[in-house]
Amino acid sequence: MISTTGLCLLAGSRAPAVARPTPAFPPASGVTVILGSQWGDEGKGKLVDILAANADVCARCAGGNNAGHTIVVADGKNGKVKYDFHMLPSGLVNPNCTGFIGNGVVIHIPSFFSELEKIEAQGLDCTDRLFISDRAQLVFDFHQIVDGLKEVELGGSSIGTTRKGIGPAYSSKASRSGLRVHHLLANDNGNSFADKFRKLVEGRFKRYGHFEYDTEAEIARYKVLAERLRPYVVDGVTWIHQALSQGKRILVEGANALMLDIDFGTYPFVTSSSTAIGGVLTGLGLPPKDIGRTIGVVKAYTTRVGGGPFPTELLDDIGSHLQEVGAEWGVTTGRRRRCGWLDLVVLKYSHAINGYDVLNLTKLDVLDGLAEIKVGVAYEVGGVELPGFPADLDVLAEVTVRYVTLPGWQTSIAQCRTFEELPEKCREYVLFIEKELGVQCAWIGVGPARDSMIVR
């Protein structure tokens, strides 16, 4: 049986919203989508936190616990509290917002409960405001083992995955052998789940040999987890459409970013799901007409975790400076992020696919104090400018980036709260980005705190 609690909850009363800087939520938009426009780690979680103050639902539509969003919240008693989200919608920081995990997400149930327990220990009560689609795929421990085996097998060509089992889980889904949440909750004492699970594991044994894994112990563990999970599970399509029919405002929190998309990213150095706007529709069961506003989150420079091409990467002191000042290490992996200049070829490509209505420019303060700032504006091969971002990584490896050099600013912008308060050269940098992309930077991040955001 699937829980109907979440459906009833949507019609319930709401407590007063938490005080925070909140730009007006787009009127009558139905669904607002926040997407990463580069290679991830753009700072999407902070904007989600701000907009979630006026949202009824915050939804995840793709990926799994390979994602990582950090939110810093001021606490009158303890100073500041930092919440690290991986699988759960980070809009849960707002106690009036309901979290929803859609069918496009792959869920490792032990990690789901571990993350839930951690944020509840930090003071967030998620009782009756967190729900999972019954169509979501499951990630098992053996998927994580296989993830590591695949990386070892690839050797020097390894992709640099998070080893959370995300790729192998999506592989099971694509081969139609994966298990979904509703399989775990079937009313037959777990027998059909157990049979399907044994077949799934046996298939992996045939591919990778009999690696150490106790199939029967895992079945027993999941029978226990099933009852614990049951109250969170709903018919996801019915749930999300009932929310829309009730006029609820839905905020979609994209995971990863466009340049990690399985189709449009730097394949094969990508994630295993659709991180573009199309993944929102298929990952939640929504029609295009219900998308009211798409917001692209852009870091003021570029970062990337793991392997793969990075045309504007800086391997000098400036790259190290951005890494240190920007605290560039992964929320999920702890790995240092590679850093480089802003790449407008990437951003124009990203905008062409996702169609951003507005942008959130983040971590602009990290550029404080630089004498000059470069922006990649075109790729050339053999002196000929490429018309766009190439699919062929061999071509990408040969590109020469053409840069525009802009003057930096020598003062801190951390306390600026209006666009006019920014130094002139800083404003020129923002306006240059807007002119090149044809999209306004409606939000500008000038620090990690919740209120360190300029709203235009």
Automatic annotation (TrEMBL):
Annotated compartments: Cytoplasm
Active site: 41 (proton acceptor), 69 (proton donor), 173
Any single GO BP term: 'de novo' AMP biosynthetic process
PROSITE patterns in the record: ADENYLOSUCCIN_SYN_1, ADENYLOSUCCIN_SYN_2
Chain sites annotated for binding IMP: 41-44, 66-69, 162, 176, 256, 271, 335
Example of a GO MF term: GTP binding
Coiled-coil stretches: none
Binding site for substrate: 331-337
Membrane among keywords: no
Cofactor: Mg(2+)
Biological pathway: Purine metabolism; AMP biosynthesis via de novo pathway; AMP from IMP: step 1/2
Origin superkingdom: Eukaryota
InterPro entries the UniProt entry points to: Adenylosuccin_syn_GTP-bd (IPR018220), Adenylosuccin_syn_Lys_AS (IPR033128), Adenylosuccinate_synth_dom1 (IPR042109), Adenylosuccinate_synth_dom2 (IPR042110), Adenylosuccinate_synth_dom3 (IPR042111), Adenylosuccinate_synthetase (IPR001114), P-loop_NTPase (IPR027417)
Cofactor mode of binding and number, as noted: Binds 1 Mg(2+) ion per subunit.
Keywords, comma-separated and alphabetical: Cytoplasm, GTP-binding, Ligase, Magnesium, Metal-binding, Nucleotide-binding, Purine biosynthesis
Segment forming the signal sequence: none
Binding locations of Mg(2+): 41, 68
EC class: ligase
EC number from the UniProt entry: 6.3.4.4
GO annotation, cellular component aspect: cytoplasm
The keyword Metal-binding appears for this protein: yes
SMART domains according to UniProt: Adenylsucc_synt (SM00788)
Subunit architecture: Homodimer.
Protein function: Plays an important role in the de novo pathway and in the salvage pathway of purine nucleotide biosynthesis. Catalyzes the first commited step in the biosynthesis of AMP from IMP.
Family: Belongs to the adenylosuccinate synthetase family.
Protein name: Adenylosuccinate synthetase
Native source organism of the sequence: Calocera cornea HHB12733
